[in-house]
Amino acid sequence: MQLDFHYYATYCAAYLAGYSHEECLKICYSAQFPDNCTRTFLSGVKAPISAATTQSALEMADADTDPVGLQDITRIWASFHFLPYDLNAYVEKGGKKYKNKYRLICNPNGELLKETVNQVKGKSLEAVGMAMHILADTWAHRYFAGTPSVVINSTNNYFYEIFEQDGEWKERPVNFKHTPGENIETCSYISSLGTDSETSVMNLGHGRAGHLPDYSFMRYKFMPAWNGHKFIYKDNPEDYYHAFCQMIYAMTYLRDEASTFETDVYAEETAAPYKEEILGIIEKRQLDACADWKAFGEKLSGKEIPDFNVDLFRSEYESASPEQKDDTGLGRFIIAALAQKSMVTNRVYRTGSLLAGYSMEYDGKNVGIKDYLKLLGFRKRGGGK
Predict the structure, then answer these.
(1) Is the pLDDT of residue 149 over 50?
(2) Structural contact between residues 34 and 54, judged by C-beta atoms closer than 8 angstroms
(3) pTM for this one?
């Protein structure tokens, strides 16, 4: 997903879940921030770089693809953008390496989603926002994994858009390219460069499928190798509406001390009075739905929603004393990110897989994740590249 859903749609869902305008702004900012919290940003404000929730294009270009570098990539992308659905999934054929990668495939309503939401119960609004980013991405990024892999993430020429025209459903090939500029009418979209390298970052997540998973109006089918070269159909409008209703449900749960969070439950009754308007935004054929979601949110609350500013966290954090930094917006986001990354890495590690690296439980006190520091030490001792 992108800014339109993570920021503006999350504001709308938070408001429908009962949060105030001011609380919604904190939540939606932190729901977008996982796409902006790079090591470059954290280093610039002298914050712990182990809390990075994404990697910029420049960082990815410089990323090592040795075992330790791949673990670092996986722990970021699997924790915040491609949450694994079933780490113990039965896989009939294939070696251990293949099975471990298959088990990182993202899908909604897995046990890790329940853990992600439950662990922010009673925590900061920044933690709530971060969890909503992860929840929403399980719907947009389903069928891809947050680790580089040809066999899991690569696509082939059998990739088609499914669209309605003159009352009939039709299909047309998607024209993937590697130069700037996308065109809905000609079905021309950007994707990462094709490569047979199993460790290339070009085969990370949905890079080979371009931004199609991030566009709410898009319906498509493709033929991944892990599915026995059989077509998978992806209905983004349906998935995005489920994501929106599940966010309302999850945030209602997070406000209620007595309730319990269950997967595959959606606050459709709460969204029902606005369903036609919400689906109208989701199904509108446009690459950027920010203006429509913003207008809907402002109609709901009667308040202005400011544009997202990546530096909003910066000045407060930089001006705070060392003792106060954890009480700033960025400080609270960092604590939530450290806990999430450590939890996911630990769950992957428990299965016997080292794709996300070694794991030690995060104790909620130390700055930085011990298992990430262990990887750094491993590299410094010559165990890495």
Answers:
(1) yes
(2) yes
(3) 0.92
